[in-house]
Amino acid sequence: MKEETPRPLIRTIDAVALVIGIIVGAGIFRTPSIVAANTGSAELFLLVWLLGGLISLIGALCYAELSTTFPNTGGDYHFLMRAFGRRFAFLFAWARLSIIQTGSIALLAYIIGDYVSQLYPIGPYSSALFAALVVITLTVINMLGVTFGTGTQNLLFTIEFLGTLCVVIVGFFLHPSPERLSALPLASENPTAIGLALVFVLLTFGGWNEAGYISAELKAGSRKMVWILVVSILVTTVLYLLVNWAFLHALGIERMAASEAVGIDLMRATLGEPGIYLIGILVVMATLTSINATIFTGARTNYALGRDFKVLSGLAKWNMRTSSPINALMVQGMIALALIGLGALTRDGFQSMVDFTAPVFWFFFLATGISLFVLRKKERNAVRPFKVPFYPVTPVIFCGSCAYLLYSSLAYTGIGALVGVAVLALGTLFFFAIR
């Protein structure tokens, strides 16, 4: 009987929509005010966003070499397996299943839950209930098949992209009402902290690495991964610069720095109260796009984990009819729902999930960057259709950025970070138990 394995069904345009959809989430409407408060001038503000795009592009080039040389549905998991062995790869897959991917799904779902619960409160846990409904719905959509899942992603991405362009048009061409603009607070003097600003910029750029998980399912072959990554980062960088420039044009750096929701302030100053509903819908659509893509790629790592470890072989069931890892999607969804439940017990579910996931995420991001150096030596005879330019300078810059963000995620987060580290340690014990 022929083994059921992933087939190359994903078009290049679907992959680009998937990657950009993961990157461009609600963060672009949350972080600009924080970045503005830590830069102090319009020129420096835009420069930091440009620098974030450059660092992301460098990282994408590193991933392009790994994914074209070793195309696999497991993505980072497969690279870490080849570089550091089964134990470390299992630890990463455990972290992705229990912390990184499922935590990301939960925190993104909370963004929608927090917004919708303000409009339609249904009780003390309405935010968690709406978040859970989003996870269940999108998980079922992806279980229906890769074609249906990518079709949903393309639709969400198109709506998100057009909506973001509307924000740019509003910021550049609609003059804010003087009365509404004067009602917005101005920031007091803030010390310049470029490093902290860059942390939030790079977090807003996060997600492009998910492309590695679809390298084995591309119709055009894994060599297209370079083009997919570069185009995705460039489009995102241009879009981010336009959005932030529009914010600056309409509000100015001082009002941006004082804002708690810069997108809402922009729409309120230009379109009044109806504008608030428009930006709310856009935030929801942007977040849905990111969640759908995160669910799609996260299940691929769980599939690879089950394929390599017999005790978890149930995760490696690939449905040829729908071309999707059904069991992996179900388990991922259940863990994300459990994390949403835990978040409901805290004061701020979204912030708790950020604290929970960030340190572990940046630790393994750094490890994947280091794996590029290891595999250059360990598998020097492997055919490399693409090599990262200016080696070893470019991967050193990437690894340095990851190390800094790992430090920051431990220094600036709360007890949730320690819980994430504890769950990671539990994975080590589980590995020895199943051996």
From TrEMBL:
Listed transmembrane segments: 12-32, 44-67, 88-113, 125-148, 155-174, 194-214, 226-247, 276-299, 326-344, 356-376, 388-407, 413-434
Subcellular location: Membrane
UniProt keyword Membrane present: yes
Main location: membrane
Keyword Membrane: yes
Record keywords, A-Z: Membrane, Transmembrane, Transmembrane helix
Source species: Parapedobacter defluvii
Membrane protein topology class: Multi-pass membrane protein
Record's protein name: Amino acid transporter
